[in-house]
Amino acid sequence: MKSTIISGIALIVIGIALLGQYSYTTEDSIFKLGPIEAKAERQHTFALPPAVGWALMAGGIVVLVVGATRKR
User: What pLDDT score was predicted for residue 40?
Assistant: First the structure.
């Protein structure tokens, strides 16, 4: 029973985390001529469709309810 409740909570937390939008920055070398080098910073954004996060949250709630109502 405890493992089901923990799994349900984990699914809900992961679902909430996936609802966000994340970005990161990379540094690319444009050209290099001897000791002179030009670099550019590029920002990349990563986001999954919100339906994935909502589906994980709903699944977590279902697992929590099943784990709480199940008796051994």
Answer: 93
Cα–Cα distance measured from residue 29 to residue 37, given in angstroms and rounded to the nearest whole number: 7
Residue ranges making up the domain that contains 19: 2-69
Helix ranges (DSSP H) in the chain: 2-18, 50-69
Residue whose token pair is 């970005």: 23
Collapsing DSSP to helix, strand or coil, 47 comes out as: coil
Kindly list the distances between the CA atom of residue 16 and the CA atoms of 9, 29, 38, 55, 60, in Å, as whole numbers in the listed order. Answer: 11, 36, 40, 10, 11
pTM for the model: 0.68
Please give the tally of structural domains in the chain: 1
